[in-house]
Amino acid sequence: MASVVSSGFRDDCLEFLSEFSKLKAPDYQTFCQEWKRTNFQYIFYGRNTDAEMAEYLGEIFYTVKKCFLTCHNQFERIASFYLLYTLYFKQPLFTFCKIRLTLMEWRMVKDFAKRPYNGQELPQVTAILWKMFKSDAFRFVQDELERGFDRFFLKSCGNSFDGSGPLRTTKDLEKELVALTTPGGLINAMEILEMGYNEMKEELDVNGKPNVIVDVVPLFHQCLHVSPMAEVAMVQVEAKASQKGQQIVGYYVGCENFYDNRFERAPGIRIADKIAENCGDACIAVIDNRAVSINMRYPALRMWQHRDNRWVKAKCVVENDHATFDAVSCLLQRGAAKELHDYDNYLDNTQNDWNNVHFNGDLKQILSMY
Questions:
Q1: Where does residue 296 rank: exposed (0-12), middle (13-18), buried (19+ CB within 10 A)?
Q2: What is the mean pLDDT of residues 166-185?
Q3: What is the share, in percent, of the chain residues with pLDDT greater than 70?
Q4: C-alpha distances out from residue 356 to 111, 215, 352, Å
C-alpha cells in the first residue's frame, strides 16, 4: 500500500525492527530506549497538511501491521506490536486515524497476545492490547484496504496538525447525534414545535371536523403481525361499523416492552397504513405503558394522525374526562379487564364476543356490574 506519501518508511521500519531484535529483550522499556536512540519520532515530520498526514498515517499503520502479521522472528513481531501501539498514540492527529483490522487479523492479534514470547504470556502485551481496544484504536472492517471514491477524512487547507479542528471522528459525530435526542435537544424541540404547528393548523381549518372515536375493538394479544388473521378481523369490524353508520378511523396498539412507547417500535404499523388508504385523516394510538395505573388522571395514549402522506403527532382529548378517568380507575381496580375478549379469544372460542357488548353501556351501568 506504500505510495509517494509514505515512501521510505518501510525500509526505516524494517531496520528499526531488526535492531530491536538484536537486543533479545521483549519488554516495552527496551523498545522505548531504542525508539529514543533512533529518534524514530521524526517520521511524523515533513507533512504539509492534515489531509496528507492522515493519508500517511493510514499507510504506515498498514505497513507496520503487515510486518507484525508476517514476522517469523518473535522479537521483531513483539517490536512491531509495540511500534503499532506507539505510533497510534503518538500520531499528531490525536488518535484520529485508526488501525484497520479484518476478522482474521483480529484473531491473529488475540492469539499473539496469549503467547507472545516463548509460548508464554507477557503482561505488558496483554495490557497494551486491552488499552488499544478500550481506546477505540481499531476499526474492524471487511477488507483491509479502504475502497471508495473519497477518503474517510475531511481535507484541510491549513498547515496545522491539530486534529480537533477540521478533522472530526465518528465518535465525535455520535456524541453530537446523542445530544440531539436529549430532552433539551433539538429533536425534542422540533417535536414540540411540530405539535404546536399541527394544533394551529387544526384551529385555522374552519371546515375541518375532528374525528370522534365512539368505540374500539381489541384484536390481538399474541400474533400481532399475522396478516391473514388481521385481514379477516378487519373485514368483520368494517361490516359491523357500516351497520351503525360508522367507519374505521384508526388503530391502537400496546407495545410488549414496558419502555417501548414510541411510534416506531409499535407493532401493526402496516395495518394503520392500510386504514389510512381508506381514511384520509386516520389516526394511530400507542398506549403509554408508564401512564397506565389504577388511579388514572390523564389519557395513557400517544396519538399520531395521517397527514400529507406521513404520520404526525396529534392531540388526544377525552370527553367528560374526570368521570371517565374515575370510571376506568374503578374498573382496573375491580379486575374488569378479565371480562374483556379480543379477536384472539374469539378465534379460540367463538362463544367469546369480541364486540364486548357488556362494556358499551353508560358509565354508571358499567360500574354497577363490577
A1: buried
A2: 69
A3: 84
A4: 65, 10, 9
What are the backbone dihedrals phi and psi of residue 300, each rounded to the nearest 5 degrees, phi first? -90, 50
CB-CB contact of 22 with 65 (8 Å) = no
**What letter represents residue 26's amino acid?**
P
d(CA 210, CA 281): 9
Question: What pLDDT score does 160 carry?
Answer: 45
Answer yes or no: pTM beyond 0.70.
no
With contact defined as beta carbons under 8 Å apart, do 79 and 21 qualify? Answer: yes
Average pLDDT taken over every residue of the chain: 81
Per-residue pLDDT band for 192 (boundaries 50, 70, 90) equals: confident
The secondary element (H helix, E strand) that includes residue 231 is: helix 227-243
Residue in the structure block whose three cell numbers are 504506515:
60
Cell of 40: 524514530
Answer for the pair 266, 302: CB distance below 8 angstroms, yes or no. no
Q: Is 253 helix (H, G, I), strand (E, B) or coil?
A: strand
Query: Long-range pairs for 69-77 at CB < 8 Å and ≥24 separation?
Result: 69/105, 69/108, 71/17, 73/21, 74/26, 74/116, 74/117, 74/118, 75/20, 75/21, 75/23, 75/24, 75/25, 75/26, 76/17, 76/18, 76/20, 76/21, 77/112, 77/116
Cell numbers linked to 198: 399541527
If phi > 0 it is left, if psi is from -120 to 50 it is alpha, else beta; for residue 299 that is beta
**Per DSSP, what are the bridge partners of residue 312?**
305
Please state, in angstroms and rounded to a whole number, the distance separating the CA atoms of residues 284 and 136.
42
Give whole-number Cα distances, 10 to 50, 60, 258, 367, in Å: 21, 8, 57, 85
Query: What radius of gyration, in Å, describes the C-alpha atoms of the chain?
Result: 33
Q: Average pLDDT, stretch 332-358? A: 81
Neighbouring C-beta atoms of residue 161, cutoff 10 Å: 18
Helix (H, G, I), strand (E, B) or coil at 260: coil
Report pLDDT for 197. 76
| pLDDT for the residue numbered 253 | 84
Distance CA 112, CA 128 (A): 12
Residue 162's pLDDT band (cuts 50, 70, 90) = very low
